[in-house]
Specification:
single chain, 287 residues, alpha+beta, 5-stranded antiparallel sheet, two-stranded antiparallel sheet, 31% helix, globular
Length: 287
């Protein structure tokens, strides 16, 4: 009997110690903006990649169907308080509802630039021989006017920016596209200041909750079969959209357009970057 009591006392002490240890160890996954965070000790290779999604492209129209635009869903969720928007893709500074709506309000033609915008080189639009290729990067000569109301329409906000970690998981021996954040952008053609402006950035794990909680509107529209519409959360998991790379993490934090030039050169650089990531995964199995 004494032996049993002694064993029970030791077991209780071990459990209390484990409980105290668990409280001291931070939960790193809960702070991750990813919907399915990968443990750091399973990561063999990681690159942070930024992509642009032009919702006017044919492959992206299922996310931009009439009255079910993904931008409309996000804007309505912020207005209702269901979703929190952040200032940047670092997702450490949340926006108030008023600040978010202010970012959706067209800037006046005579508005002044901030010091950061001036330092980035904004303020003057330069013409070049590659401007014809700008349409592929999100510009359009037919959509230059702001709506009559104070806010942009959801249909006008056709440009999204996606931030992902391209990760090779050594435990599963495969590459993953781990989406971190998605941002709504005001296209440069709509902004009188002449550059793209971020309306708000959203954590991917928050977006999945919103998409799952609103299955009737958060739809990836299947034009071939109405019985096979997908939830937007599944559409991102299955990569059912078209995008192009605009930046890959580098010491100088420069975009591909800054390194190689805009227009056609930028598009070719984006294609080369995508192929280089694919080639890296293939070369892991070469001996």
């Amino acid at each position: 009997m004494k032996l049993i009591k002694a064993i029970g006392g030791v077991a209780a002490g071990v459990l209390l110690s484990l409980g105290a240890f668990a409280q001291q160890v931070p939960n790193t996954q809960s702070s991750s903006p990813s919907a399915r965070p990968i443990p750091e000790h399973d990561i063999l290779f990681k690159k942070t990649v930024w992509r642009k999604i032009d919702l006017r492209e044919k492959q992206n129209t299922p996310m931009f169907s009439e009255n079910r635009e993904i931008t409309r869903i996000l804007i309505d969720a912020v207005k209702s308080g269901e979703l929190v928007a952040y200032k940047t893709d670092s997702v450490n500074v949340p926006l108030t509802k008023e600040e978010f709506l202010g970012n959706m309000t067209p800037k006046e033609q005579g508005a002044t630039l901030t010091e950061e915008e001036i330092a980035a080189g904004f303020g003057e639009q330069q013409e070049s021989e590659d401007d014809a290729w700008g349409a592929a990067l999100g510009s359009s000569a037919t959509e230059t006017s702001a709506p009559a109301s104070n806010e942009y329409f959801a249909k006008q906000l056709y440009l999204l920016e996606l931030k992902e970690n391209v990760v090779f998981d050594k435990k599963r021996s495969r590459m993953y596209h781990d989406i971190q954040t998605i941002s709504i952008k005001v296209p440069a053609t709509l902004n009188p200041l002449g550059f793209e402006q971020t309306v708000g950035t959203f954590r991917m794990n928050d977006l999945v909750k919103v998409f799952r909680n609103n299955p009737d509107v958060a739809i990836w529209f299947n034009a071939q079969n109405d019985a096979q519409h997908k939830n937007l959360a599944d559409a991102f998991d299955l990569w059912l959209f078209s995008s192009y790379i605009t930046k890959i993490s580098n010491p100088n934090d420069r975009g591909l357009a800054d390194i190689y030039g805009g227009g056609r050169k930028g598009l070719l650089a984006a294609q080369d970057a995508a192929e280089a990531l694919i080639e890296y995964e293939y070369s892991l199995w070469s001996y």
